[in-house]
Specification:
heterodimer; A: alpha/beta; three-stranded mixed beta sheet; globular; B: about 250 residues; eight-stranded parallel beta barrel
Chain lengths: ~210, ~250
């Protein structure tokens, strides 16, 4: 159980709803605006909206980039990236020139590279989508809810995992688009759990308990 | 594939209370807007549209505090419309945690703010709300919701906002607003068949069952209502409600 969660707050999206969602799970939430409070948390949530490079540069300007990498790689501090935050866990993005955190091998690609998505998804993909399990862990989580989980997504780029066994769920009907990913203590949700009602709450709760 | 949405509408008055208009004229008091939003959280609604019908000023601290509280409370995506007069207003609303902004068609006609916002947010973050009426000859026209003035033929208005980048269009029937007389399903036949932008039908929704049936129309991506999801069907008392997933076939 992760009881004291640090939410990275460097102006890349509003974190109010996310903090309320975490607080609803009875965990303490600490806003991370710089590296000072990083040592006092037992899990990091990295949210974000906007462009890849803007996200990277904002975290660097706050002096958090290297401390986050060090805490995750050397101290095994769990991290959850949400939306852009999940994409920042990868190596890099077609959207920009900055490098990602490199915590989960994979690259961020534009959804247009998937070819004709007519009837399956629009670009940007904005709305509620069902997901389907890709790994045993992902399927097990979804099965505990009779498989009927849906989440709110807003994105034009997707995480192309170098190792597909790290993918927990993908968007239903578009298996290339990673919805949730995990490698050891590094996790990512492409969807917004804080905007996804009980479905998002369950996913956040599972991460807090170390199950996702 | 995205799931079709049922969208409760919260109309904010000048005191930050939720009200419901009838034919855009009379209004009924609903209650505290934040409390209503909390109930919609509990009901698990797909999305909420918040319309600033009394033109609360968006640079006012009190307004921003109220909207900030709503955004932080929401466990669903939020759209906001009304008095978005410039990019700075939109920046304020989006930075509070809203996902989309809405502009009425009269605003699309009057200035280029909506198009400028499309360039910043992308189409998916910008809705066009087209308020319309049918004339004596059965022709559909977009109307200005404030002056009551007639604008363009509805099909022309839809094509106009589509070409200018609207990511979603809400078709709002003025004469059905708050009346619970049924949605105007025929309005979709007035539009060109190849409209690619998601369409939302609003105005007149009677029952949950009607909303679910309406979504079977492939041309629609959503149904919005400020009455059906807010008042009980029989005595019209305030009783927010929403169909559950099983009823919706989700």
């Amino acid at each position: 159980m992760r009881n004291n969660i640090g939410v990275v707050d460097v102006g890349v999206g509003n974190v109010g709803s996310l903090c309320r969602s975490l607080a609803d799970l009875d965990v303490n939430v600490t806003l991370l605006t710089g590296p000072a409070a990083l040592s006092s948390v037992d899990g990091i949530v990295l949210p974000g909206v906007g462009s890849f490079d803007h996200g990277v540069r904002s975290i660097k300007q706050a002096g958090l980039w290297e401390p986050i990498k060090k805490a995750v790689v050397e101290d095994d501090l769990p991290i959850l990236g949400i939306c852009l935050g999940m994409q920042l866990l990868g190596n890099g993005s077609e959207e920009g020139s900055e490098k990602g955190l490199g915590l989960i091998p994979g690259d961020i690609k534009h959804m247009s590279t998937l070819g004709d998505l007519s009837g399956q998804a629009t670009i940007p993909n904005m709305g509620w989508c069902r997901v389907e399990g890709c790994s045993d862990k992902g399927r097990s989580f979804l099965d505990s809810f009779n498989g009927k989980q849906r989440y709110y997504f807003v994105h034009s780029y997707y995480f192309h995992a170098a190792d597909q066994s790290n993918v927990l769920f993908s968007i239903e009907g578009v298996p290339e688009v990673t919805a949730a990913i995990r490698l050891r203590h590094v996790s990512g949700f492409q969807f917004h759990p804080e905007k996804s009602h009980r479905f998002g709450r369950s996913a956040l709760d599972a991460w807090v308990r170390g199950a996702l | 594939m995205t799931i079709k949405r049922l969208i409760p509408v919260i109309q904010l008055d000048k005191d930050f209370q939720a009200v419901k208009t009838i034919k855009f004229n009379k209004r009924r008091y609903v209650g505290d807007a934040l409390n209503l939003l909390k109930i919609y959280n509990e009901l698990g609604v797909d999305e909420v549209a918040i319309w600033n019908i009394d033109r609360l000023i968006l640079s006012n601290d009190e307004t921003l505090d109220g909207l900030s509280e709503m955004a932080a409370e929401a466990r669903m995506p939020l759209a906001f419309g009304g008095m978005l007069q410039c990019i700075a207003d939109v920046d304020r609303v989006i930075s509070l945690g809203f996902e989309k902004v809405s502009f009425s068609y009269s605003t699309w006609c009057r200035d280029d703010t909506p198009e400028a916002v499309v360039k910043v947010l992308g189409s998916s973050g910008v809705q066009a709300v087209i308020n319309y009426r049918k004339d004596l000859f059965g022709r559909y026209f977009a109307f200005c919701h404030r002056s009551g003035g007639r604008l363009e033929r509805l099909s022309v208005a839809v094509n106009d906002v589509t070409q200018r980048g609207a990511g979603e269009i809400i078709l709002q029937a003025i004469d059905r607003d708050g009346m619970r007389v049924g949605l105007d399903s025929a309005v979709l036949d007035e539009l060109d068949r190849d409209i690619k932008v998601p369409l939302v039908n609003a105005g007149g929704l009677r029952t949950h069952a009607e909303s679910i049936e309406a979504l079977e129309d492939k041309r629609l991506s959503g149904v919005a209502s400020g009455t059906c999801f807010t008042f009980s069907s029989e005595r019209q008392g305030v009783l927010p409600s929403y169909p559950d997933d099983f009823t919706r076939g989700l």
